[in-house]
Amino acid sequence: MKFGISYSTPAFGADPERLTAFARHAEECGFESLSLPEHVALYPGAKIGPMELPPSLPYADPLECLSFAAAVTRRILLGTGVLLLPYHHPVVLAKRLATVDVLSGGRMRLLTVGVGALPREAKAAGVDFATRGRRADEAIDVLRLLWAGGEEGVSFDGEFYAFDDACVFPKPLGVRELPVHVGGSSAAAARRAGRRGDGWFPGGMLPPDERRRQFELVRTSAIEAGRDPEAVQYTRWGSLGMSTKDVDALAAQGVTRIVVTPTTAEPGRAHEEMTAFAERFALA
């Protein structure tokens, strides 16, 4: 089992010293990865399910934060949980992600993408909310095409994106393309993970039966697409208070990575929680 940790700027703030201290401590504890969430634009009354999101929540740009954290760490992998892919142009995003990967020494390896759940956020980004799933599918294809393309350039003619002989450099460090994990709590997200994803990272509120159905959908979708279902990693949210028995139960369900987050916004206590978890599971 691999263990990642999430830094939530809405909960913990975007203070640079706090972010870098968190990243350093996570690496010292032995966590595999550091991830950040994203919202591009909120608005009064925005809700995801029953949870209202105050419009002043400081959702800092996750890739900028990860690049900042990479400068003070050496080993910890960098990830998103999730980056809202339809709201980013994939040609620009391909360069941004590859640049972070190069500058971090090949650590931008846990990109998890989602499609968003707030219609007015999509509108603010200039995206038709109804098309966001198809946009995400196409964007994943564009990212991989650009990363793999050489000096001769690559071309694409899709529903949302089109270009001829495009060359995007630098390339990801030492690999043909960066892994793309798929997040979300819908059947559509599960199918996307199976057909296109290197991993699946469902939301934390799914009932157990629905979660099992969606994981099976990931696997059957991979098979239908001619892909190896065993190669699709399975990430789940966990808690810093979870026991070894809890982890064993998730492993039995096929989970390969658990991402946790501190329960407190107080830096000293958050670091204590991280240290205790690392010691319990002998991460370092």
From TrEMBL:
Record key words, sorted: Flavoprotein, FMN, Monooxygenase, Oxidoreductase
Domain Luciferase-like: 11-272
InterPro entries from the UniProt entry: Lucif-like_OxRdtase_Rv2161c, Luciferase-like_dom, Luciferase-like_sf, SsuD_RutA_monooxygenase
Keyword Flavoprotein among record annotations: yes
GO biological process, alphabetically ordered: alkanesulfonate catabolic process
Gene3D superfamilies xref list: Luciferase-like domain (3.20.20.30)
Pfam family for this entry, one: Bac_luciferase
UniProt keyword Flavoprotein present: yes
Entry superkingdom: Bacteria
Annotated GO MF terms: alkanesulfonate monooxygenase activity
NCBIfam families: F420_Rv2161c (TIGR03619)
PANTHER family registered for this protein in UniProt: ALKANESULFONATE MONOOXYGENASE, ALKANESULFONATE MONOOXYGENASE-RELATED
Record protein name field: LLM class F420-dependent oxidoreductase
